[in-house]
Structure formats: structure tokens, C-alpha cells
Amino acid sequence: MFLNNLKIAWRNLLKNQAYTLINIAGLALGMACAMLIFALVRYHYRVDKHHTHYDRTFRVVSKFLSPQGEFHTPGVPYPLGKALRNDHPDIEQLAMIEQEEDPIVAVAVANGPDKKFKETEGLAAFVEPSYFRIFDYDWIAGGPTDLSQPGTVVISAKNARKYFGTTDNVVGKTIRFGGRLNARIVGIFADYKDNTDFPYSIMPSWASLKEYKGGMDEDFGNTNSSTQCFVLLNDAFTQADWDRQMMAFIRKYKPDGVKDTRFPMQPLRDIHFSTDHGGVSKGLILSLFLIGIFLIITASINFVNLATAQALRRSREVGVRKVMGSTQGQLFWQFMGETALITLTATGIAIGLFQTGQTLVQEYLNGAFKFTFYFDASVIGYLLALVVSVIVLSGVYPALVLAGFRPVTALTGKINLQQIGGFSVRRGLVITQFAISQMLLIGMIVVATQLKFVQNKDLGFRQDAILMVELPSVPNQDISKLNTFRNLASGMAEVEKFSYSMSGAPQSGWVSSNSLTYNNRPKQEDFSIQRKYIDANYLDLYGIKLAAGRNLYPSDTSRETLVNESFVRKIGAKNPAEVLGKPLGVDGKTLEIVGVVKDFNQEALRRTIAPLFLTTRSARYYAANLQLQTANFQRAISQLEKFYNQVYPDSYFTHHFVDAQIERSYQQEQTMSKLVNFFAGIAVFIGCLGLYGLVLFMAAQKTKEIGVRKVLGASLGSILWLFGKEFAKLILVAFVVAAPVAWWVMGRWLQNFQYKIELGPGIFAIAMLTTLFVAACTVSFQSLKAALMNPVKSLRSE
């Protein structure tokens, strides 16, 4: 019986090739997208869960309170780890780490210059040996035992192969880290196979940090986001115990922070989705998951529409089978078998599309949407559940309809609309499809418009043709080298202006907040202020305007300062000139305010412009800013690299253009835009297949009616409108459903930005008109075919 049903199903599918291909295409696309989204969601929900002590691992973080709100950072003061060990010996394990981004690693080469590597793929971190008793690592050679000594390091197998061409006999060799730390390799660990938020590929010893940094700040009042603390807790000391004792700890070690400082413990399971600390939005990941479900629903709806549209053609087949003795149950399973065959074929194609899709995702998507994927029990279980769900969603209703035909009615061809579900069911399905499509279209338009807005908004400074060159990250810059590099670069015909600063462009993404006093007031102000170290050429190079006062005089140390307009408003001054000449106490120094700059965005447009002061300090210049005047940027960059290597032979030349850097700060939004565009396109395409199914059904039902109308003189336009008005109504109803939902969802997304577009009626009108246009194109072919049919054939069709 099974083989017989399979043969019949195969013959029916071959007989109706257009129907089969449309169904397979829709299901394959929907399932491939669902699998891709599942891979993305699975990646994020499995991050760091491979560690044995995942449920007992915590990160101590910092939270600062102020009247303006809370400020969160994953960093802690440098001495916090030592203090925790002293006061709470019941903590099972504690490890301090210091992250180092994009370090330079040099490897000695016999009879030649050192090989230098700029590590940009993974972070580096100075760690204590106890770090490896909290987190799991597989060791290929050596281990972390000797990592308690200064001048030692462990590296990944990938880095060992990159530096030395092999992982054999690498332990004991030396690398130069960051241009100033000679470190002996004491261990090699296996490359990461699982998802992690801590992909450190080079880990020097914590005992080396003082030498590397030129000393460490033992003050509890200074917090760096790179200095982090991990603890492994047990029943002897729990998170609840720490919550009860934290305030006593703060009163002992940071008494001035009792009102505004907290050091909560954050579970490892919460770190990946902690947006306060740079994590991924869980809402965004769940939204993608819902999109995957929607795409499966729309693909299944297509199947139902097309299957029921075919019901009229197969009614006599059902009648004959019932007369020959087939039961309703047998017919039901026969039609379910056809659905299963189509679904399994679509699944095979979907797996192929998924394999291609994940390659494209790895190549074109990044940031929050990266993922690694491999087949395991959970994936196979998901795939089986997906296949079964699609078969049930797509097949049950059409199978019940077809198997339920009465033999006499079916054989005489008197099947009516009610017996095959009528328009009402199909209308509801198409409305559902296009409501989903229009929600995704509205989302696509909103994201694209917001991105265009943030990229084109006047940020208050110049961006074009400005190159930023990174300088060595050393404790104190050599002023003589700064002057030499400035003179060499400024002498180039391609360099119009040159300036030094601590963090490059005005909107660099790097933020440092400081407490302050103003005008010798006895108490600190109730807000913090951000800082930037710049030279006297910075304002001119970036085109930053003064609202009052003058620019800074050239100086290697901090003597005077500029503030921005936000500071003026925050301090309560009536106009910018009012603060000129007043002393500003910040960072342990008193500086004279000599000018007020017009506000510019020092952070991405997700945040408002904060109070800011700018002052000179050559020892903290880590970026050279150059305005170029040439059509051949590459030639200028090559010459700059030669000068850089001449002045800084132990460093690595790294550069980027400011406008590209600012664009990268919206990487997550750009990636989201690509995803929404792609899935919206797929949803619209699948929706069009659904429309095609409905117009097939209508054309079959109205064949004789169209013939009568043509005989009575109906025009081509009136017949086309017979089809068009039905679909226009459905799309308008779908829009009424989709618009409020999309308005609410995208409104919440826009709340992530302090500077954002308005959700005006134009956005929704574009989405609706786009849907109408695409639908019209879809319907027109079959509508024209029906309208142009010879009325003699139309009248004979029944």
C-alpha cells in the first residue's frame, strides 16, 4: 500500500509540474531560511556553555549611580581582586584579567629582521593561572602552571602555527608582545571549537602586567573596562552572600563610593545578552527566531492555497477512488504522502541552500550575527521537527478537504466553493502572508532610513579624506618620536593638515568619564565629564567650531582646557562666555577654561552628547590624524608606512579612514538591515507564490463567468479588475493588521537611538504601494491568460 501510494503521488507530481515546482521552491526557501535563523539563534544561546563550571562562574562588574541614571562597565578597579581574596577566602577561585586589543607580536628570525604580526582576529589578555581553573582549555603542550611567573605566555595552536609554522617544540620559545614584553611560551592550547565571548588567543601572565604597563594604579577610584575579575563560587560563598556583604566591602575599600558605586556579580549565563556591557540584544535574537517561524508559516500557506486550487481538477479522481472502495482514511494518507514527498524533496534542496547560505553569512555578516555551525543531535532533532511541522501545517487541511468529497458530487463535477474551503479560508491565509510580508517591508524601510539618517547627519566635525594612524600603545609616548613623525608626515605634499590626539576622530567610540569640580566649588558636580587629549591643530583639522573663547595653545602638558556646549548647559551657565577663565578641577589637576566648542557627537547616535573637556597631553597621544589632499591615497599611505617604520621600528603600521571608522560603529545595524532586507524579500516572494495559487483558483472558478462577460461585451480592463479588486482588498486588510504591529516593534527599536527618524505615514505608504505593485505583477500574468481566453472555450469548460 505504501509503495502504491508513493507511485501515485510521484505520478501526480510529475503530471502537475508547475504546481510541484512552485510548492518545492516555496518550502525550500522557507525551510532554508528557518535553518539559517536556527543556526544564528543556536549560536547565541550556546555561548560559553561548554565550560564545566558554567553555572557557578560569575564576573564582578562595576555600576555607577547618578541623578542622570546608571553607568555600567564590565571593568573593575585593579586592586579589587586582591581585596576580594583577603576578605572572602571562601571564594573557590578568583582570576583577574586585563584585555589588550589588537596587540603586536614579534618573533625573532635568524639572520633577518623580526617577523611582526598584528593580532586583529582575537583578543589578548593578561591572566592569572587560576583563570584556567575557572574556564576549560585543552592543552596540546605545556600548560598554565608556570604562568604565575613574569615574562611568560600561553598561546593558541593557531597562533603557534602562524608564528612558527608548527605546534611542535614551541614551548620554551620567546615572542615579543606589544613591542616591549619578552615572553617565554609555557603552554599551547587547542583552538576554540565552541562559541565564546572570550576568544583570547594570546595570554601573557598577570605578573607581567606591571612591567608591560609601566606600573599599575592601585587606587579603587579608577576603573578600566579592560580590567576584569572572574570568580567561581560554591555553597560556602554564593552570589547572595556577596550581595549582603558588598556594601561593607565598598565602605572598607572605597568609602567615597558608598552612594554611587556598586560591584555586582554577573552570572556567566547572562554576559552574552547583557546590553549594558556590550552584549547582544536578546530581543533581536528572538525577533530573528520569530521571522523564521513566519517564513515557515508563509511557505505552508502557499502549499495549502495551491493544493486546494488543485482540488477541482482532482475531484473526479477522488470520486473514482471512493467508488472503487477507497476509504476516507486511505485517501487522507495518500494526499499526506504527496505532501511528505514534496516536503522531503524541499528539505534536501533547503539543506543545500543552507550550506551555501551559511558560507555567505560568515563572509558578509559579522558582529552580533556571527555563528559557527555543525550538525549534532540538537540540529538533527530540530530538522526532524521542522519537517514534521511543515508536513502537518501544509498537508492536513488539503488532505481533509480532498478526502472528504462525496463520490456522486465529485463524479458529476458539482464541487462547490464551500466543499473545498471557499474563499474565506484562502483569504485569511493570504492576508496572513501579506501581513507578515508588509511587517518585514516596513521594518526594512525603517532600518534603511535610520541608517541613512545617522550616516548623513552632521556630526559637528569633518570626516572626508582624514586618515587616522595608530601609534604604539605605550605608558608614555616619546615626545621626540612624536615630533619626528609629525615633521616627516607634514613634509609630504599629500598631507594638508596634521594633528595628534589620544583616540583619533572626535567620534572614536572610546569614552573616559571623570568626576569634576567647577569654579572652586567645595563639592564635586553631580555629573561626570568625558575627556579627550588633543593638540592645538585638532580643531582646525576636524573643522570643529568655537562657540566662545579661543583654541588651546601648543603644549606637551595639560594647562588649559576647552569644554563643549553640553557642559555649559549642565553647569547651569546662561551662555558659553560665562565659563571662560573659570577653573575646572579634573583628573587631579586644575585647568583654566579658555574656550567652548560647539557640540559634536563623540559617541554613536545611540547616545546624547555628554559634557566634555579637551586638553593637551603629549604622553597620551595614541593617534595621528592626517587630512589628505590627493587622488592617490594608496601612494600617500605607502609613504606614511615607510616613515612610521622608520620612527617606530618595533611597532606595526595600522591605519583607517575616519568616515569608514564611523560607518563601522553602526555595524550591528547594517548587518540587521541586510538580514531584514533578505528575509523581507523572501517573504514577499513566497507571498507572491501564494497569490499565484489564489489566482489559479479564481481563474478555474470563474472560467465560465469570464466567457459570459466577454460575450456580453465586457472589456479586458473590467475582467482584469474582477481579479485585481479581490487582491487589493486582501492587501489592504493585511496592511491594517501589519501597520500597528510594525509601528510598535520599530518604535521600540528606534528607542535605541537618541537621534532618530520619525515613523511618519510615508514609510507605511511606501510599504503598502510596494506590496500592491508586486502583487499586481504576480496576478497580471494569470489574469491576462484567463481574460484573453476564447469565450467559446470558456463556455464549454463546464
UniProtKB/TrEMBL annotation:
Pfam family for this entry, one: MacB_PCD
GO CC terms of this entry: plasma membrane
Membrane-crossing segments per the record: 20-41, 284-312, 332-354, 374-397, 434-454, 675-700, 730-750, 762-781
Cell membrane listed as a keyword: yes
Predominant subcellular localization, coarse grouping: membrane
Domain MacB-like periplasmic core: 20-240, 464-618
Membrane-protein topology: Multi-pass membrane protein
Record's keyword annotation contains Transferase: no
One Gene Ontology term of the molecular function aspect: transmembrane transporter activity
UniProt-listed PANTHER family: ABC-TYPE MACROLIDE FAMILY EXPORT SYSTEM PERMEASE COMPONENT 2, MEMBRANE COMPONENT OF TRANSPORTER-RELATED
Name by which UniProt lists this protein: FtsX-like permease family protein
Source organism of the structure: Larkinella knui
Origin organism lineage: Bacteria, Pseudomonadati, Bacteroidota, Cytophagia, Cytophagales
